């Protein structure tokens, strides 16, 4: 059995921030893996520091029959994902990787989750969906987020996703992520809101779950706000 989650992480520590050297999201997925499957080994994990390593890791995860969600855990900005080796993964690079994987060998990904600051915006989701990125949903943060608060929300999201898979296995992937979004809205709306939506500069992560809009526009629909 498997969580069907593939984690790609870059080191968080550098000389300019206060994050400790051994900080990693891996314990979150060890916990989920143990909780749901009784093993530390029910998910895939890769540490990457360069663009080449990132591409190789995403290729392996995308083509794995056992893995349907890629969780990308690294520093981010509104222009891309930032790896500890100094490389940046722009939205164009990401789109090209996904399209090439699909064209050459197919992809089994249904979800793409950005565990990073700022990069998980509606503009990014619009761009990827309008360029036929081979995923059903995209999730992430449009704000600069606190590591502990965002890790907590990440844990709750993936626990909810696995619960929905177990509770409603006959739903389509789009219906399942819709049910995940419904539960997240009911339980954690304040945490998902942006500081502007909460009316408090200190509260809110600006978290969204996007699916492709139906019809000719093919842009992004935010399941936490457009319902």
| Strand arrangement across the biggest beta sheet | 2-1-3-7-8-9-10
Low-confidence stretches: none
Beta-strand fraction estimate? 15-25%
Structural class: alpha/beta
Overall mean confidence score, pLDDT: 95
What is the first-to-last residue Cα distance? 33 Å
Could you characterize the architecture of this molecule?
With 227 residues, the chain is an alpha/beta fold. It is built from seven helices and ten strands. It starts with a strand and ends in a 5-residue tail after the last strand. The relative contact order is 0.13.
How would you summarize this macromolecular structure in one to three sentences?
The protein is an alpha/beta fold and 227 residues long.
Fold topology:
Blueprint: E1 5-9, H1 26-37, E2 44-47, H2 51-63, E3 69-73, E4 75-77, E5 80-82, E6 88-89, H3 91-105, E7 111-115, H4 122-130, E8 137-141, H5 147-167, H6 173-192, H7 195-198, E9 207-212, E10 220-222
Parallel strand pairs: 1-2, 1-3, 3-7, 7-8
Antiparallel strand pairs: 4-5, 5-6, 8-9, 9-10
List keywords for this structure.
alpha/beta; 7-stranded mixed β-sheet; 3-stranded antiparallel β-sheet; 18% strand
């Amino acid at each position: 059995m498997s969580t069907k989650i593939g984690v790609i992480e870059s080191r968080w520590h550098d000389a300019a921030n206060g994050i400790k050297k051994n900080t990693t999201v891996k314990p979150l997925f060890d916990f989920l893996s143990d909780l749901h499957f009784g093993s530390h080994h029910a998910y895939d994990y890769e540490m990457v520091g360069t663009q080449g390593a990132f591409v190789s890791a995403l290729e392996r995860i995308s083509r794995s029959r056992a893995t349907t969600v890629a969780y990308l855990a690294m520093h981010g900005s509104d222009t891309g994902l930032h790896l500890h080796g100094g490389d940046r993964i722009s939205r164009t690079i990401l789109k090209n990787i996904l399209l090439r994987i699909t064209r050459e060998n197919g992809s089994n990904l249904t979800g793409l989750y950005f565990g990073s600051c700022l990069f998980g915006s509606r503009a990014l989701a619009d761009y990827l969906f309008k360029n036929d990125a081979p995923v059903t949903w995209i999730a992430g943060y449009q704000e600069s987020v606190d590591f502990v608060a965002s890790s907590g929300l990440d844990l709750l999201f993936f626990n909810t996703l696995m619960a929905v898979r177990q509770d409603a296995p006959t739903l389509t992937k789009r219906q399942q992520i819709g049910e995940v979004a419904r539960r997240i809205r009911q339980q954690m709306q304040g945490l998902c809101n942006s500081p502007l939506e909460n009316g408090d500069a200190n509260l809110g992560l600006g978290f969204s779950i996007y699916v492709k809009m139906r019809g000719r526009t093919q842009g992004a629909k935010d399941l936490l706000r457009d319902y």
